[in-house]
Specification:
Elements (H helix, E strand, L loop, with lengths): L2 H4 L4 H9 L5 H19 L2 E4 L1 H7 L12 E5 L15 H4 L10 H8 L3 E6 L19 E2 L2 E5 L5 H8 L5 E6 L5 H7 L2 E4 L20 E6 L2 H11 L17 H4 L8 E4 L11 H16 L3 E4 L6 H27 L8 H11 L3 H21 L5 E5 L17 H11 L10 H10 L6 H6 L3 E8 L5 E7 L5 H14 L12
Helix pairs in contact: 9-18, 12-13, 12-14, 12-16, 13-15
Amino acid sequence: MKFSEYVQYDGLGLAQLVKNKEIQAVELLELALERSAQVNPKLNAIIIPMHEQAKQRTKQNLSGPFAGVPFLVKDLFQEYQGVPTSYGSHSLKRINYTPDFNAEIVNRWEKAGIISFGRTNTPEFGIKGITEPDAWGACHNPWNLKHNSGGSSGGSASAVAGGIVPIAGAGDGGGSIRIPASYCGLFGLKPSRGRTPWGPQYSEAMHGAAMQHVLCKTVRDSAAMLDAVQGPEQSSLFTIQAPDQKYLDIIQQSPKKLKIAFNTQSPIGTKVSNDAIQAIQQTAKLLESLGHIVVEDRPKIDGLALAKDFITTWFSQFSYMQAQIKQMTGSTDQDFELDSIALAAFGAKTTATEYIHNLNNWGLYSTQMNIFFEKYDLYLTPTTASVAPKNGEIATPAWQKPILKGLLKLGKAHYLAQGKLVEKMVQDNLSWVPFTQLANVTGLPAMSVPLYWNKHGLPLGSQFIAPFGREDRLLQLAAQLEQAQPWMPQYKKISL
C-alpha cells in the first residue's frame, strides 16, 4: 500500500483490510511511521515515541473493531505502562516520570485492537486552548504550519489531519477535543459526563467536566470507538445508561426532523470573526435543506458568569494538581510555566465557600439547559470564535508578565483575580474559545463538525450541544451532515 492509499481510509476501513488479510498490521504501522518521519519534524505532533512497544504489539493476535490500526495517545491522563509521560511539563519531563500502569481508557482502546506508537503534544497540564508548551515547543497546524493546532489535544489533531493516523486519543475539559477539531478540520465528540472511564487514578475529572474520547476523520470511527470504550468501571461515581443500539448502527439511520437553536454571539461579549458567523450561517442553510427547523435563540445563561465559575473551579483544581506534582517530583516553581504558576496561585486562594458557590452555579446552568432543551433538540454555535491562531499569537499579555512575576515573588499573585481584573483575564483567556465551556460545565455531550473552510484554506467547526446522554442524536446528525457535505476530500489539499 502507498501512502496515497493509506490516507484515504479511516480507522474502520484500515481494520477491514487487516481482517480481510489484504494487508498486515505491521505494514500499516510501517506506513504510519514513514509518514511520521516525513511530517512530524514539521508538525511537532508526536513528542514521545513508542515504536518498540508498537512493533511488539503487531505480533499479537489482535481483535476488536480497530484491530491493527495505528494510533496515538495524548500525553495527558492517558498513561501507558512503562512509557515516559510528561503532561506537557518540565516538572515531569525532568524526572522522566514513567507510570507503572495503564489508564483504563488506554486498556479499552487496546481491547478495540489499536496499535499505539507514540504520545502526542499537549499544553502544560492541558490548561490552554493552544499547544505551545515550553517543555516541547509549539504544535503546528497541517493546513498552515504558521498556525497552531489548538489545545489541549493539539498533537493528536495535528497527527490525524496530517495523515499520520486516522484516529487518536484526546480529552476535553473545556473544549480540548472540539477546539483542535475546529482548527484542524476534524470530527470531535465530547461525550456526556461519565460516558467514558477515568480510572484507575480518578473517579472523574473536574466534577465530570473533563471527558476522554478521540479525534478522527469520520463520524463512524468516533461512533465505533465510543461503542468500544463506553461504560463504568470500579472507579466510576455513577453509571450512565447506554443506548439500546450500538452507535455504529444508529448512524446508519437518518435522524428525525430536528428543531435546532443557533447563536453566533460570544457568551462573554468578545469578538466573533466573520468566518465563525459564515460557518454557522452555512451550516444552518445545510440543516434546513435536510429538512430540519433552525431558529436563532440562546439559553438564558449569563455567559460571563459561567466563564468565571468555570475559571475559578479550573484554577482551584489545577492548584491541587500542581501541589500533588510538586510533592511527587520535588519540583519547584522553576519547573512550571509562568502562566501555570499564576493559575495555581489564584486557585490556592479560593475559599471552600467560594468553591462550593461556583459548583452550585454549575447545577443552575444545567437546569437552564434542561429547560432550553424542552423547546429544542440541539443547540448550534461556532466551535471557536475564529480559525486557528498563529503560533505565538496567544500569549500572556505583556502587561501581565512583570506584574505576575512581582506578585508571585511577594506571594500575592491571587490579587490579580480580584475585582474587574478577573473579567479581563477571563476575556483574555477565553476570547478565542468562548463557546465550548458550556458543555463541560453542564456535562452535556457536544461535537465539532468540519463544515467550513475559509478563503485561505483554514477550517472552522460547527458545534452542536445535545441533552444529557444523547450522543446518539449528535452522531446521527453528524453522519447525515457528513453524507450531505463530505469533508474527507478536503484533506487532499494538505501539502506537507
